[in-house]
Amino acid sequence: MNKNLMFDIAVYFYQNYGISVDDIAFERHQVGFNVSIRENGIYLYIRFWKQSKGRDGLPDECVILVTANFKTHEKRNVRKLAKFLNLVAPRYGYEFLAVENNDELNSHLNLMELQVKHSSHYLAPLGEDLAEQLED
């Protein structure tokens, strides 16, 4: 786990939602780490995969939004989170943003659909094109 990335995530959630670092769970695993928040009306789960090992057809160096529910202003906050990830994640070597099998969450971002076996994921390369898409 990259401590600078963890710090950036903690600062983002503190500045925007008043969530302290103690209320953010960072969990290391074999292919990267997960971030989980259940505080102040936010239910969030993000995977940061350095290696996908081919799972779900997702590429390496992928940030995966699994759950991103906000008590208020759902669409605006999801898009704001995606903008933050698009800005910060590439600094740490991440190349893609994905939504894991969640049509409702993707309705806020409109990422490209990626059909895998019996489910749908959504995917976009991080960078300028995604930044422009999120401005709409």
Quick rundown:
With 136 residues, this protein is α+β, with helices and mostly antiparallel strands. Helices cover 31% and strands 35% of the residues. Helix 2 links the parallel strand 4 (62-70) and strand 5 (96-100).
Rg (CA only)? 14 Å
Overall spatial form: globular
Main sheet: strand order: 1-2-3-4-5-7-6
Distance between the termini: 33 Å
Work out the number of β strands: 7
- The average pLDDT score comes to 92
Order of helices and strands: HEEEEHEHEEH
Uncertain runs with pLDDT below 50, 5 residues or more? none
Helical segment count? 4
Strand content: 35-45%
Sheet/helix structural class = alpha+beta
Report the major sheet: 7 strands, mixed
Proportion of helical residues? 25-40%
